[in-house]
Amino acid sequence: MTSTTSRKSGLSSFWNFLKIVLALGLVIYVLSRSEPSKLISALQDASVFWLLISGVIYLLLTLLKALQYSVLMRGTLTYPQVLNVIIWQNAVSNFFLAGAGVAAYITLTRLEHEVKISRSVTTFILTKVGDLIAIWLVLILSGSLVWSKIGVLQTPVILLIAGIGCVILFFFLTILFRQRFVSLVGKILKRLGMSKVKLIEDGMNYLQGLANMEQNKVLSTFGMLLLYSFLYLAVSICFIYANLAIFHVQPQIPAVMFVSVLIQLVSYFPVGVFGGLGITETSALYFWSFFDIPQDTLAPALIGIRLIFYLFNLIPLIYLPLYSAFLKPKQQTSPK
C-alpha cells in the first residue's frame, strides 16, 4: 500500500513539474512575440480608468461565483460562509494549482462547515454544468456572428458545440432517469472495455452522484443557478474586454464573446498552473489572430493582464480576516 501511494505521489509531483515547465515555456513564447520595450511602453501607457473598471468587475465576479454556490448550499451555509470558501478556492487555484483549489473547497466545506463531501462535489459539478450550458449557448451565438472570420476554426467549433451538447444531454438524462440511465451507461462502457479507464471511472462517479440527488431539488434550483451562470459569463466577457482596454486594445464585442468562451473552455483542461499561466496567453494569441490584432501589440497586453490578474487576486483576501473576526459563526451545525 505504501509503495503504491508513494508511486502515485511521485507521478503526481512529476506531472505538476511538467505543467510548471509547460507554463514557463509558453510565457517565454508569448514574450518572444514582442520587444521588451513595447511591454514597458504598454505598462506605462495603461489606462487607469479601465484598470479601475476591471478591478470592480473582478470583485463582482467573485461575489457572483459565491452566489452561484450559495443557491445550491441554501439552508446549509450562509452567503458569507460560501464567499469565504470561494475566495480560498480562487486563491489556491490562481496562485498554485486548479486541482488544489478544488481540494481546498472540498476540505473547507467538510472540516470547517461539516458539509458532506458528496454534497460539496455535487454542488461543484452542478455549478460547472450551469457554466458549461452558458458557454455552449454563447459559443453558438458568437460563433455565428464571427463565422466568416474564423476560417480553420470552423470545424473545431462545430465539434466543440456537438461535444458540449452531448455532455449537457448526458446531464439531463441522468437527472431525469437517474439510476436507470447511469446503469445503462455503465453496462455499455463495461462491454466496450472502457469502464476501468481512470477518466471514465471518475466521470461515472460524478454521474452516480448526480443520480443520487433529489430530482425535485435539482430541477427547482437549477433554473436559478443557470441564470447566475449566464450573468457570471456576461460579466466575465466584460472583464476580458476591460482588461484589453487597459492596454488600448478594443476589439468588437462579438469577437470578445467568441474568444472569451474559447479561453474558458481551454481552462477546463487539467494542464494549467498558477491560474492558467502561459496556456491562457498562448491560446489568446492564437484565437485573437483571426481578428487582425497584431501579435506585437497583443503580447505585451496579455503579459500586463497577467500581472494585473495576480494583483486583483490579492484584493479579495482582505475578506478572510474580516470573516474570521466578525462573520464566522461561533458554533457549527451538525454534519449536513
If you had to describe this structure to a student in words, what would you say it looks like?
- The two termini are 32 Å apart.
- The chain has one domain.
- By secondary structure, the protein is mainly α.
- It is built from 14 helices and no strands.
- It has helices at 2-32, 36-44, 48-72, 79-95, 98-111, 117-145, 154-177, 179-191, 198-212, 215-246, 253-266, 279-288, 295-314, 319-327.
- Helix 4 (79-95) packs antiparallel against helix 5 (98-111), helix 4 runs antiparallel to helix 14 (319-327) and helix 6 crosses helix 10 (215-246).
Mean pLDDT: 86
Q: Are there runs of 5+ residues with pLDDT below 50, and where?
A: none
Q: Structural class, from secondary structure content?
A: mainly alpha
Fraction of residues in H or I helices: over 70%
What global shape is seen?
globular
Largest sheet: none
Per DSSP, the total helix count is 14
Task: Tell me what portion of residues adopts beta-strand conformation.
Answer: under 5%
Radius of gyration: 21 Å
Distance between the termini: 32 Å
SSE topology string: HHHHHHHHHHHHHH
The overall number of domains is 1
* Annotation, overall tally of beta strands: 0
